[in-house]
Every structure is written in C-alpha cells, then in structure tokens.
Amino acid sequence: MPNLVEPSQCIEQAIEIFTACYSPSDQVYSHSCLWGDFNFCLNGLFEYEVEGQLHLAPPSYGLWIPPFTEHNSHAIDDQPIHYVAIRLAPALSKQMPSQTEILHVSPFFRALVEETLATKDHANLATYRHLLWVIYDQLQSAPKHQHYLPQSHHPILQPLLQQLRAPEYFQLSLQQCLVSTHLSERHILRLSQSELHMGLSEWRNRAKILYAIQQLKQGISIKALSFALGYQHSSSFIEFFKRYTGKTPTQLRD
Q1: pLDDT number for residue 131
Q2: Where does the HTH araC/xylS-type domain lie (predicted)?
C-alpha cells in the first residue's frame, strides 16, 4: 500500500468512518477541521454552506470538504436523515482536491462503505485496513463536480433559476419558461454555460430530482409526482429518476 500516512499511524488512525442521523430541526454550525471530510446521505437530502457557497447533495452524490474549510449544514427534509461521514487525516487529504467538490457515489462505493461499517468491529484488522484503502482509492477516482445544482447572482439568470426550480412551473416546457426573459435560447445557453458550467435543461433536471427525492420521502405517490413534474406517464418519470439516481423511486423511498 502507498505510504501516505504518518510513520506513527496506521490506516485505521488516518481514516475515520461513521454514520449519524439528523432530525429535521438539527443544524451543524459553522466550523472547520484539521482533517478533510467526505459526507453523503444514505437517505434524504442535506444542504451545506461552504465558505458562503450553497451545495446540495442527493443520495447519489457526496460532498468533499478540504481541511481548514469553514462550513455548516442542515437537513432540508421533513424526515430524519441518515448519513455517512468519512474523515481523512491531513496526509491523505493532500491527495484529494484542494477545493470543495461534489463526488459521485456509485452503487459499488455505497455497498463498500456499508460492508466496511458492518465489519468495523467484527472483522480481523487486516480485512478492515484493506477496506479502508479501497474506500480511499474510490474517493480519489470518483467523478468530481464543482456543484450539483450551482447558483448564480447574474441579474438575468438568478430569477430564471428561481422559476425553473419552482414546482408550479415544472409542467411548463423550458421554452415556455424562457419566454419571460425576452432573450434568444442561444444567448441563454451561452450565459448558463458561462455561469453554471451546464445547460439549463440539465440544471432543471437536477432541480426536479432534488424535489422528487423530498416528495417521495413525504409519501407522495409516484403517479402524482410524475404528473407534478410534467410527465404524462409514470414509466417516463421512473426512467428519468433512475438515470440520475441509479435507483427507481420505489427503491429510493424504501
């Protein structure tokens, strides 16, 4: 294994992994750490504020926060949230991004973390150490993004984004939403790529996914949610949802 931990440390002293639960009223106040943090939700949705920037992470993504980075977080679901925190010692954190980033959480990584947690106190030490190294390797190679749902203070784009993420507008097409801007689609596309580093269609799809996750946790039916998001058939919504989360709405809700 690579020699990335201090001479006096073993890997289990350089990587801490644990789970915790947040109730809807819980909030973590602003703080920074000597170690780096990777957090992802096993269920529910968290909002993080990192150095003044808001970050949202649905269950298929997690947030990497480098050492000495001030941040706070709170639950935005109406139900308890179960999440995993993986903390990396400074030497290991140096091999991770130096800025806050959203990391994709694959089904393999989720299963790997669950297996590591299950064997933490029951497997032999060699097995546990090996699993920690695999987790670290997966964190380094995971696809990374600056934001899952980036925001903008641009005078044209900001009110448009507020409209695009509002549930009452989900049944309208993107073209119908753009009418109020009095700008060409090409101009809006250039603006969104410059400010958000993605097209408005992709941004809106992500906003719909975040909304859908919250509604599923509150017990809304898949048929009603499909209609609310502008889909005439539940099968189309299920396909869309699975493409973004890796699970069907029923699997995620259960």
Answers
A1: 94
A2: 154-254
